[in-house]
């Protein structure tokens, strides 16, 4: 594999100062902005990826965000990567998925287990604005990778690849593909391998592009397939050990599952901003819609759900650095619950927007596009059921050990501005081994001297729920501890993920006391009460002033063009 760096203008050198992507992309409401909402909606109607957007992201050097700093890129913190990509998802989910996410997913197994040469090659490719795709799923088997049929059989000093991958993003224009292939016909966890293929080096007579699939959401993403017939590839294309792909997946996907939910927060930031603008402008019964009780409650709840989602996704991303041996659980919980919360929020906001939520152009047209895109984007890479199935086998051991005895997580997990150790892909544990420091944070808070009494009460309610979960999960029958478990096990993971979200909110509040908003207990009390209510518990009346405090903050951020997430940053518009 070779890359001619001399033919690659725009390569991002090591040490390049971080540009501000939010400012760089401009005001999405400006009709003259080629990356604004009108241009995004027009591209969506055509089913195209926004060309101006791709050129802009090339100019910014977005691919450098996916390349580790040691290899010349800017990827050093998973939580930062999620925040950077939010700027793209705030404007166009299709661009975020079609330009960025597919490449990020394809590159992560290479960073995880690739040789030094494979990592260098992938890094140089991406820094030249090259594109990569990840070929995992097959229509016959969905996300059950262990049954994938595309084969790579040894033929002397090479492999011959035969089979097809029918639904792969960006494959038609990819420069490289990370291919999940069967390399052993025997059943078991050592039957598949990753192959890193340079598309231009594959003989055309042995590969055939399949038709593009049209989608309701992210319409511009090129979703197609490739069929191989005895396609020769070099033996050094194998990433990691031969037969080791499933283990690589279990580590690499912790990174992608932790980062993608944080990117999606940007979609709902735009949804909430769009509906709030409508609710402030539109008048009914002599009042702005925003002052009507139902609309006001929906808007505040949307803000609260966005903060909760950001807490869980940010903590999961930071855990990759701080608690790498536990992120097999945290990453799956974030990838399961955050999309669920964001989708529920978007659908409630649609009720406030009313018939305008169906309009495909005009000042509110971005809402219907984002609603469709959100459903598609949150399925990208791993569905809710797959994430739950990752947690289920670990529930009994967590119930017997982690939920009863694990100490609280270190402050670095929650302190948003705190430095993080480098992400060591090899240290990511395949299982949490029954340890759960995040849940320990929730259980421990009530024992602290000087703890807030109202917070203690809600934490106690949620810790009691965790105790009930422990009793049930410790006694799960063998079948209900596997990926073929019944509905009860899946329901238990939902409740557990909700408790983890509460612990993440608590930790963020505890360690942001110097922040005027995040250090105030009123948002936390509302968040814990909302999560307790989601579990069917009875948290009582939200303390006086909590919801009014949230409403005041929401309106101030809207007026001052600041983001609705934890970072509370200034926006371009």
Question: What are the key terms here?
Answer:
3 domains, 4-stranded mixed beta sheet, alpha+beta, Butyryl-CoA Dehydrogenase, subunit A, domain 3, Butyryl-CoA Dehydrogenase, subunit A, domain 2, Butyryl-Coa Dehydrogenase, subunit A, domain 1, 573 residues, 49% helix, 4-stranded antiparallel beta sheet
Produce a short descriptive summary.
With 573 residues, this protein is an alpha+beta fold. The chain is built from 17 helices and ten strands.
Instruction: Record the strand order, biggest sheet.
Output: 1-4-5-8
Strand tally, please?
Answer: 10
**CATH architect. name of the largest domain:** Up-down Bundle
Instruction: Report on the biggest sheet.
Output: 4 strands, mixed
CATH fold call of the largest domain:
Butyryl-CoA Dehydrogenase, subunit A, domain 3
* Approximate strand percentage: 5-15%
Alpha plus pi helix count: 17
Distance between the termini: 43 Å
CATH class of the largest domain: Mainly Alpha
Order of helices and strands: HHHHHHEEEEEEEEHEEHHHHHHHHHH
CATH homologous superfamily annotation of the largest domain? Butyryl-CoA Dehydrogenase, subunit A, domain 3
Number of domains: 3
């Amino acid at each position: 594999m070779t890359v001619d760096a001399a033919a690659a203008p725009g390569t991002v050198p090591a040490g390049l100062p971080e540009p501000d992507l939010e400012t760089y992309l401009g005001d999405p409401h400006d009709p003259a902005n080629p990356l604004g909402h009108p241009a995004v909606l027009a591209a969506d109607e055509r089913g195209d990826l926004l060309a101006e957007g791709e050129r802009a992201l090339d100019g910014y050097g977005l691919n450098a965000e996916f390349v580790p700093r040691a290899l010349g890129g800017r990827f050093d913190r998973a939580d930062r990567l999620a925040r950077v990509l939010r700027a793209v998802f705030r404007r166009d989910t299709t661009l975020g998925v079609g330009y960025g996410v597919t490449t990020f997913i394809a590159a992560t197994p290479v960073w995880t287990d690739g040789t030094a040469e494979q990592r260098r090659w992938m890094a140089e490719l991406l820094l030249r604005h090259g594109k990569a795709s990840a070929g995992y799923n097959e229509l016959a088997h969905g996300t059950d990778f262990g049954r994938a049929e595309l084969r790579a059989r040894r033929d002397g000093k090479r492999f011959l690849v035969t089979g097809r991958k029918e639904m792969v993003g960006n494959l038609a224009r990819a420069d490289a593909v990370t291919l999940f292939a069967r390399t052993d016909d025997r059943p078991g966890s050592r039957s598949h391998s990753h192959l890193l293929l340079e598309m231009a080096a594959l003989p055309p007579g042995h590969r055939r592009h399949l038709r593009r699939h049209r989608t309701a959401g992210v319409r511009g993403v090129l979703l197609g397939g490739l069929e191989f017939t005895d396609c020769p590839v070099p033996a050094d294309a194998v990433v990691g050990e031969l037969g080791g792909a499933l283990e690589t997946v279990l580590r690499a996907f912790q990174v992608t599952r932790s980062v993608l939910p944080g990117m999606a927060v940007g979609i709902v930031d735009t949804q909430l901003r769009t509906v709030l603008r409508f609710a402030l402008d539109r008048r009914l019964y002599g009042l702005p819609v925003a002052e009507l009780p139902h609309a006001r409650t929906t808007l505040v709840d949307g803000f609260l759900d966005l903060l909760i989602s950001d807490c869980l996704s940010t903590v999961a991303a930071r855990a990759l650095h701080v608690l790498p041996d536990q992120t097999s659980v945290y990453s799956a919980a974030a990838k399961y619950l955050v999309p669920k919360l964001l989708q529920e929020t978007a659908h409630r906001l649609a009720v406030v927007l009313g018939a305008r939520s169906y309009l495909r152009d005009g000042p509110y047209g971005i809402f219907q596009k984002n609603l469709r895109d959100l459903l598609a984007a949150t399925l990208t890479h791993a569905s809710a059921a797959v994430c739950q199935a990752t947690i289920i086998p670990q529930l009994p051991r967590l119930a017997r050990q982690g939920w009863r005895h694990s100490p609280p997580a270190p402050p670095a997990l929650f302190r948003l501005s705190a430095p993080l150790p480098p992400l060591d892909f090899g240290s990511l544990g395949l299982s949490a081994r029954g340890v759960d420091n995040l849940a320990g944070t929730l259980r421990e808070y009530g024992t602290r001297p000087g703890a807030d009494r109202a917070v203690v009460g809600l934490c106690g309610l949620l810790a009691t729920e965790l105790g009930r979960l422990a009793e049930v999960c410790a006694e799960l029958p063998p079948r209900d501890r596997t990926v073929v478990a019944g509905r009860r096990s899946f329901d238990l993971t939902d409740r557990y993920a909700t408790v983890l979200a509460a612990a993440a909110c608590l930790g963020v509040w505890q360690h942001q006391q110097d922040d005027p908003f995040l250090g105030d207990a009123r948002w936390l009390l509302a968040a814990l009460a909302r999560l307790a209510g989601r579990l069917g518990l009875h948290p009582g009346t939200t303390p006086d002033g909590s919801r009014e405090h949230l409403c005041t903050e929401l309106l101030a951020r809207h007026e001052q063009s600041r983001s609705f997430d934890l970072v509370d940053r200034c926006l371009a518009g």
